[in-house]
């Protein structure tokens, strides 16, 4: 039984830090976009929840990779911030291709939301795979 619980403390530490990073991610990402995701989601705008949801998965994938590869909490924090930065960069790059991206998402247009979501998810997968430290 004690060997089963040996990793429980480390699990809790990494899990709590990851949850905090997710909260920080959601806060910063939603400030960086030109639309208010949470207000739109409260209004049942599915495009906003789709784009934010895929973006969140695109962040969680490299965060999970960082947890697996991290040599400690500092590594996790650094690579979590890298993952956050990549997702914000993806949003701004998609805006270059689609300058009215936020207006389209706010208007409920799923094509714009799915394109942003796919770009975010793709970047997250590539980001996670690149974490070989």
Automatic annotation (TrEMBL):
It comes from the Bacteria. It is found in: Cell membrane. One of its GO terms (cellular component) is plasma membrane. It is a multi-pass membrane protein. This is Putative membrane protein. The chain crosses the membrane at residues 12-32, 44-70, 76-94, 106-129. Keywords: Cell membrane, Membrane, Transmembrane, Transmembrane helix. Belongs to the UPF0719 family.
């Amino acid at each position: 039984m004690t060997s089963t619980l040996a990793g429980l403390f480390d699990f809790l530490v990494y899990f709590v830090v990851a949850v905090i990073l997710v909260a920080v991610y959601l806060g910063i990402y939603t400030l960086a976009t030109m639309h208010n995701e949470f207000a739109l989601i409260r209004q049942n705008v599915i495009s906003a929840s789709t784009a934010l949801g895929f973006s969140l998965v695109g962040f969680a994938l490299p965060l999970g990779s960082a947890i697996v590869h991290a040599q400690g909490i500092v590594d996790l924090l650094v690579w979590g911030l890298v993952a956050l930065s990549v997702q914000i960069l993806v949003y701004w790059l998609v805006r270059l291709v689609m300058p009215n991206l936020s207006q389209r998402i706010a208007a409920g247009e799923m094509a714009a939301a799915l394109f942003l979501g796919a770009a975010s998810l793709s970047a997250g997968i590539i980001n996670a795979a690149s974490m070989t430290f």
